[in-house]
Amino acid sequence: MHIRGDHAELVVGGRLDVRSAADARKVLHEALDGGAGDLVLDLVELDSWDATGLGVIMGAHRRAGRSGRRLVLRNVPPQMQRLLVATRLHRILAIEGGIALETVQRV
Question: What tens digit of pLDDT does each residue of 52-104 get?
Fold first, then answer.
């Protein structure tokens, strides 16, 4: 897993899973604590995430809310969109451009 960017936008790549969760959490917390306004997570390079990785995203979402910020997901890959719909997290998380209607209909 790799994350690059600043306090306003981060690009996440590779696998966000149990092995990379601690490192990802640290980077996300530093970005949230060190900036203001929306924090955009661009997932264009993300290959996969597991339940632990999704938990890291939800934890960052909660931390952003507590600090008056908003976590925004961008370029969510289709298979991850389906997981967000299946878990109904697409109703809670800010997703740039929303979830494709065909993704919602398939789940």
Answer: 999 999 999 999 999 999 999 999 999 899 999 999 999 999 999 877 655 55
Taken in order 3, 32, 24, 72, the sign of the CA dihedral is negative
Scan for tokens 């389906």, then name that residue.
Answer: 82
In angstroms, rounded to a whole number, what is the distance separating the alpha carbons of residues 100 and 34? 32
* Phi, then psi, of 25 in degrees rounded to 5: -60, -45
| Beta-bridge partner residues of 42 | 11, 74
Cα distance between residue 56 and residue 11, in whole Å: 15
